[in-house]
Specification:
Strand content: 15-25%
Structural class: alpha/beta
Number of domains: 2
Order of helices and strands: EHEHEHEHEHEEEEHHHEE
CATH class of the largest domain: Alpha Beta
Strand order of the largest sheet: 2-1-3-4-5
CATH topology of the largest domain: Rossmann fold
Radius of gyration: 19 Å
CATH superfamily of the largest domain: Response regulator
Length: 224
């Protein structure tokens, strides 16, 4: 999942972002309400995690602006204000869930996963190409009856390729969406990860699914 964390406490934001990344998700951070609003309009996220008390624009105002512009991305509100009236105000402003501080990351993760699942249905949380399956929530990958163990970056790479199955995915697209680079580091990092991924999902199977499109990029496609 791609998650936006809108939180002005840098230590808290770094902790949450790191924890999401450790379980394989992509986490962006905005330090105030205006930056959070701009990113929410600019990029596509599965879930927004928004602190209620923010500089420049508070969390409820941010959510209200999004809903007014028909942005329906699920929002989980984090707040030190945990009374019933506070939670009601957050939900009525357009929030989908409300988690008072302090909280455990395990609960935060579970709530974010539930919101992502509700948004598009269970089928959007899983991809299938031929006999290769990837479950975005459980982080399980299998081909036929064989479970495939991937490192977090390999999982993100395969997830992006399977999301765009049948389409050519360029190096620039991979750098921006899998590595969060907006420049070419002039290394063979993509080639190395593609090679590792290919050895795991294709090596022991009759039909290859991951293809190099010379001069263009890469593609995962159904062999049928």
């Amino acid at each position: 999942m791609r998650i936006l964390i809108v939180e002005d406490d840098r230590d808290a934001a770094d902790y949450i972002a790191r924890a999401f990344r450790e379980v394989g998700h992509v986490a962006d951070h905005a330090a105030d309400g205006e930056e959070g609003l701009a990113l929410a309009f600019e990029r596509e996220y599965d879930v927004l995690v928004v602190d209620r008390m923010l500089p420049k624009r508070d969390g409820l105002s941010l959510i209200g602006e999004l809903r007014g512009k028909k942005v329906e991305t699920p929002v989980l509100i984090l707040s030190a204000l945990g009374q019933v009236d506070d939670r009601i105000k957050g939900l009525r402003a357009g929030g989908d869930d409300y988690l008072p501080k302090p909280y455990s990351f395990a609960e935060l993760l579970a709530r974010v996963e539930v919101l992502a699942r509700r948004r598009g249905g269970r089928e959007d949380m899983a991809y299938r190409v031929g006999d290769l399956e990837l479950d975005r929530l459980s982080h399980r990958v299998s081909r036929g009856t064989e479970e495939i163990m991937l490192q977090p970056r390999e999982f993100r790479l395969l997830e992006y390729l399977m999301k765009h199955a049948g389409q050519v995915v360029t190096r620039t697209m991979l750098l921006e969406n899998v590595w969060d680079y907006h420049f070419d580091p002039q290394t063979n990092v993509i080639d190395v990860h593609i090679s590792r991924l290919r050895s795991k999902i294709d090596k022991n199977f009759a039909q290859p699914l991951l293809h190099t499109i010379r001069g263009a990029g890469y593609m995962v496609r159904d062999p049928k």
